[in-house]
């Protein structure tokens, strides 16, 4: 774990987040990673098994969007094991984060993480996003591996606050998906994930 801690600290530095992601937050991120490894052996939460790969593909990938997370409540759709939602909840205690997933074992895991890490700003929902009817809309709705952009926007439109933002985490720029969505994104941001050779992008849409 000392090696992983060193790698995480280096990754945070490379992302220029050292003034945002404190040592305590990094320790919580590593505690999350330990829980993910432990539960993954039984519940198969992610196909990634190697701790070093988990650090890069899950933690650092999730942390790479932090500079683009604004004030206001956030919903993570199809959160799986809590990525990026619970990582955002750890590192942005000033905002309320809701994660939702249809798979019960993933929701149970996320609730365990919330309890063990004391994430009072996190809420976990088990269910379908199109049937989710919260008391208040969300300023930000993010997804990492949920669906194509058109479906992502369609299924979450009822959850979006006026002038809120959709944030779609993608690999290569999804040109065909953007054409099918029929709406120009506000921004297409190239993400630089430390120690990851593959391209990563954040596609931002605004609810106008």
From TrEMBL:
GO cellular component terms, semicolon-separated? cytosol
Write down the top EC class of this protein: transferase
The yes or no answer to whether the keyword Glycosyltransferase is present is no
Q: Which UniProt keywords apply?
A: Cytoplasm, Methyltransferase, rRNA processing, S-adenosyl-L-methionine, Transferase
Q: What is its main location?
A: cytoplasm
Q: Which residues bind S-adenosyl-L-methionine?
A: 78, 83, 129-130, 144
Q: Which reactions is this enzyme annotated as catalysing?
A: guanosine(527) in 16S rRNA + S-adenosyl-L-methionine = N(7)-methylguanosine(527) in 16S rRNA + S-adenosyl-L-homocysteine
Cited InterPro entries: rRNA_ssu_MeTfrase_G (IPR003682), SAM-dependent_MTases_sf (IPR029063)
Q: Does rRNA processing appear among the keywords?
A: yes
Where is it located? Cytoplasm
| A GO MF label | rRNA (guanine-N7-)-methyltransferase activity
Q: What is its EC number?
A: 2.1.1.170
Task: Write out the function statement from the record.
Answer: Specifically methylates the N7 position of guanine in position 527 of 16S rRNA.
Q: What family is it from?
A: Belongs to the methyltransferase superfamily. RNA methyltransferase RsmG family.
- Could you tell me what this protein is called? Ribosomal RNA small subunit methyltransferase G
The species is: Methylophilus methylotrophus (Bacterium W3A1)
Q: By which gene is this protein encoded?
A: rsmG
């Amino acid at each position: 774990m000392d090696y992983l801690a060193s790698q995480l600290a280096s990754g945070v530095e490379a992302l220029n987040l050292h003034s945002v992601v404190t040592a305590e937050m990094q320790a919580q991120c590593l505690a999350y990673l330990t829980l993910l490894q432990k539960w993954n052996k039984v519940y198969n939460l992610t196909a990634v098994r190697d701790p070093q790969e988990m650090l890069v593909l899950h933690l650092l990938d999730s942390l790479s969007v932090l500079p683009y997370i604004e004030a206001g409540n956030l919903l993570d759709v199809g959160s799986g094991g809590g990525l990026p939602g619970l990582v955002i909840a750890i590192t942005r205690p000033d905002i309320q984060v809701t994660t939702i997933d249809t798979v019960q074992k993933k929701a149970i895991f996320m609730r365990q993480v919330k309890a063990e890490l004391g994430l009072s700003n996190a809420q976990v929902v088990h269910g379908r996003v199109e049937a989710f009817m919260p008391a208040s809309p969300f300023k930000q709705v993010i997804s990492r591996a949920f669906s194509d952009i058109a479906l992502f926007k369609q299924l979450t439109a009822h959850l979006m606050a006026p002038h809120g933002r959709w944030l779609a985490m993608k690999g290569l720029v999804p040109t065909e998906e953007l054409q099918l969505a029929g709406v120009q994104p506000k921004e297409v941001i190239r993400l630089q994930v430390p120690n990851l050779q593959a391209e990563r992008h954040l596609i931002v849409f605004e609810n106008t």
